[in-house]
Inverse folding.
């Protein structure tokens, strides 16, 4: 029972389903992300990681929980965009990820196999990433035609120019396909969500060399 509990916690820790203390935001999170205010910019400049949450009800009555993490990165937007698109090396700078393998390229899209090891189970899934180079937005969604053992996931990364450096936004929804108590999700994502964007920041600010596995 304990090992299963830990396993579920790891899944939510890595995939980042639910964020911590929600903040007031100007527009719909699941439709386009939070519009940052002057107050948000000041907090980012002070080194804070901003976390937002939205519960979105679908037409059929089901609810999705979307989250956004925002962080300020001391690098030019083009440098950030290059790291965000380094899909084959995601395992080097995404927490717990052990595999990020390119399966197929399709013009501006790439299909990837990703996996990580939980306490008693290997979690694996395929994502389709699609670039919008002009906007520096990298969309992703579950690619259901290939094997996976999660329910669903979708979202995007975005690099936003800010005074010659960059704000990185990470927006995500995920469904593990299992019923998990809300309080378990919240406890563990408080620790893991900031780590996801912090690792991206470290990778970028190192010039693309920082590797989570070589540090240990």
């Amino acid at each position: 029972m304990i090992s299963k509990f830990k396993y579920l916690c790891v899944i939510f820790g890595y995939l980042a389903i639910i964020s911590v203390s929600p903040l007031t935001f100007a527009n719909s999170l699941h439709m386009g992300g939070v519009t940052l205010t002057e107050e948000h910019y000041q907090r980012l400049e002070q080194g804070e990681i901003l976390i937002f949450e939205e519960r979105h009800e679908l037409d059929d009555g089901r609810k999705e929980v979307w989250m956004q993490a925002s962080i300020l990165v001391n690098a030019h937007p083009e440098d950030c965009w290059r790291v965000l698109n380094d899909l084959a090396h995601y395992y080097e700078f995404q927490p717990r990820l052990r595999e990020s393998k390119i399966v197929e390229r399709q013009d501006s899209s790439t299909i990837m196999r990703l996996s990580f090891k939980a306490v008693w189970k290997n979690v694996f899934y395929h994502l389709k990433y699609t670039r919008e180079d002009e906007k520096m937005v990298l969309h992703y969604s579950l690619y259901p035609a290939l094997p996976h053992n999660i329910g669903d996931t979708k979202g995007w990364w975005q690099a936003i120019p800010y005074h010659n450096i960059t704000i990185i936004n990470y927006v995500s929804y995920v469904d593990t396909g299992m019923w998990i108590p809300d309080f378990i999700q919240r406890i563990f994502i408080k620790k893991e969500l900031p780590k996801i964007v912090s690792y991206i920041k470290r990778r970028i600010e190192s010039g693309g060399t920082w590797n989570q596995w070589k540090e240990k």
